[in-house]
Amino acid sequence: MKPSCLEMVAFGPYAGRQTIDFRDLGAQTLFLICGPTGAGKTAVLDAMSFALFGQASGTERADRKVRSDHAPADLPTEVCFDFALKDQGFRIVRTPAQPRPKKRGTGTTTQAATATLWARPIDAPEAEHGEVIAEGVSDVTEAVEERLGFG
Predict the structure, then answer these.
(1) Beta-bridge mates of residue 82
(2) Which residues pair with 5 in a beta bridge?
(3) Is 90 helix (H, G, I), strand (E, B) or coil?
């Protein structure tokens, strides 16, 4: 698997939108994620794991903890991960179950977790999602595990 682009919104320590474009690495096949303690390095790996499998990469970070404590209440947590397997591109967009402001009245309600997996050309424009392969949290996880060959 080769990562292409990772976008995290209100995820982990990131209160807003953070995008990591792995395509900037060009033909490099090895890269280092480095920085001081608390800089958000593990959050990058957590976001990839969450997009692929619906859970963070470590057992100490439960699913309910993927939402940033610093994010505004009206900004939903979402991860969009583009990657390639051999000559096929894929995009996953996943959101955790999370509180959101009620549309009417005051207070919050819980929005259910969502997930969608698309097949797309490796060189597809950013705005183009591609063809839906699977929708729903468990169906997307199953489709990813099938393609990767592991869970």
Answers:
(1) 5, 91
(2) 21, 82
(3) strand
> Tens of pLDDT along 117-127?
999 998 888 88
Q: Give kind and range of the element (H or E) at residue 82.
A: strand 78-85
Report the first-to-last Cα separation within the chain, whole angstroms: 14
Q: Which residue in the block uniquely carries the two structure tokens 């869970």?
A: 151
Query: 77 exposed, middle or buried (CB, 10 Å; 0-12, 13-18, 19+)?
Result: buried
Tokens of 76: 């939903």
Could you read off the pLDDT of 29-78 as tens digits, one per residue?
888 889 998 888 889 999 999 999 998 876 665 545 789 989 998 899 99
Report the sign of the C-alpha dihedral through residues 6, 9, 10, 13, in that order. positive
Q: Are 130 and 71 in contact (CB under 8 A)?
A: no
* Residue whose token pair is 């090895």: 30
Residue 147 backbone class (left: φ over 0; alpha: ψ -120 to 50; beta: rest): alpha
pTM (predicted TM-score): 0.91
Determine the Cα–Cα distance for residues 147 and 151; give it in Å rounded to an integer: 10
> What would the DSSP string read from start to end of 106-137?
SSEEEEPPEEEEEEE-TT--TT---EEEEESH
- The strand pair at 88-95 and 78-85 is best described as antiparallel
